[in-house]
User: Fold these one by one.
Assistant:
Number 1:
Amino acid sequence: LARGAAEPDLRGRHVVVSAGGTREPLDPVRYLGNRSSGKQGYALARTAAARGARVTLIAANATLPDPAGVDVVHVGTAVQLREAVLKAASEADAVVMAAAVADFRPATYAAGKIKKKDGQEPEPITLVRNPDILAEIAGDRPRPGQVVVGFAAETDDVLANGRAKLERKGCDLLVVNEVGEAKTFGAEENEAVVLGADGSETHVPHGPKEALADTVWDLVVPRFT
Ligand code: CTP
Ligand code: CA
């Protein structure tokens, strides 16, 4: 993090980072969740703070220690994450959506624990769509000139999928990870390609999540207007 001290290029900037993974409750004891650890989002928050930014970290179910000098807002569901991100984004210079947001949530929440019934098959779970926070912010920027960054975990044709997603979401940068069983989730290291809406493509070699985070900020800074 020596780099942060040498180069406080985010001084005077407010950045919002989301991290972790949302959980969508079914009943008081169960939820639909995902395997995001929050490490990449926390690395983004730490590196931004080291480079002089005021940082708001919206953490969804991450169990990592709150980074020093960072405002942390803890949330559970995608709907709560949306509210917290929109609130913080209204005065932010950049929004980075590193959180894994559940695309769907159970249509109903059972106030009491769901029980087995003798001789009966379980009821199917009906899901409804969650709001797309990144698309909403990118399409209607809370602050003019705000830089909006998304993350995507892809398999198969990673670059083509990433390029299509960048356009669909309308963000300025999309960090694309290739995922597999042993890759990315919970890992200490990451490898990614950062796609820009201007057509740029920045390959980040396998390395610590801090290094990828610093590359993201390197790409955000020149996009500030
Ligand atoms: N995202 C979001 N709100 C959602 C879903 C995703 O803000 N409801 C954000 C994520 O934080 C991430 C980016 O969108 O920065 C891409 O997430 P991803 O799941 O890859 O995109 P989806 O549009 O949900 O596409 P897919 O069907 O491949 O899951
Ligand atoms: Ca998704």
Number 2:
Amino acid sequence: MKILVTGGLGFIGSHTVVELQNEGFDVVVIDDLSNSSIEVLDGIQAITGKKPDFEQTDLRDKAAVQNFFAKYSDVSGIIHFAASKAVGESVENPLLYYENNIGALVYLLQGLQAKPESHFIFSSSCTVYGQAEKMPITENAPIQTAMSPYGNTKQIGEEIIQDVAKVSGINSILLRYFNPIGAHESANIGELPKGTPQNLVPFITQTAIGLRQQLSVFGSDYPTPDGTCIRDYIHVVDLAKAHVTALKRLVNKANADKVEIFNLGTGKGSSVLEVINAFEKVSGQKLNYKIVDKRPGDITEAYADTDKANNVLGWKAELSLDEALASAWKWEQKIRK
Ligand code: WQD
């Protein structure tokens, strides 16, 4: 059985390909290289000794997706990462997000629908909860009206998968990520943000390495202990392993329902200032930062209730914030050599 990983040369995708190969899965990657680079294939091979099959395919091209399924007729499992994911960009260019994030999903599901039985794992996000009322956030927390077209594509994607499950042999798991950070311990793969990083940790490491002048901390008067926002930062390798656990659950038919949902986080919240302090500790470097105005659209607090992931999925995050930050710093130093 071949497993398709879309966006498999991206940040979370590449780490998941490594863990799939480590567990003996035969992987084919689709990536359009719009937010990744072909050299990531070499990084994967350097870790696992195996280079996955690779197809540079635009998933918005229905015929191209159909041709893929004709060529790889033995694909019966898909882990779907490929999507546009910049919240701010989605506000400025919503149609790019609806075409890419929804169109591609529809074509992939059409490719599976003809098969008697198949497995689909969807990269979703805690962003679907908006600012949840209660912490930690469970999978039953209400879905809030999306704060951005990006978040809306995740909500719509989940609904599409639910509808298709009722009339097909597609069994799905929706994984709602909290904040993925870090890099593989080998520093052969990691996060490669294009242009100015939107996310906190790559901006921290680029500031520490001298690529950026100064980190701007977006607000320090939130209703939190130190006034800065709280998030659940999960090591990308832990996140990748959760995908393998989810795939095995589907392949072994251990899933209780045709669509299951799991929050993937550590269950621990860390503030922006706590992340900065932890980074300074693990890197031995002072970080140049200043407090500025809040970023529109940011929520105050989000961290996961991990009971369902731990006790039903059978997965638990093992790596700490310090380990994640140390791996991110090791990666930044390596790629800037
Ligand atoms: C974290 C905290 C910022 C940058 C987003 C998406 C989510 C997922 C992860 C795709 C916030 C603060 C950040 C900076 C800062 N993406 N910050 N200075 O916004 O929680 O989540 O990325 O799946 O769906 O919504 O992550 O890393 O951007 O921000 O102070 O330069 O760091 O205000 O409090 P976020 P983030």
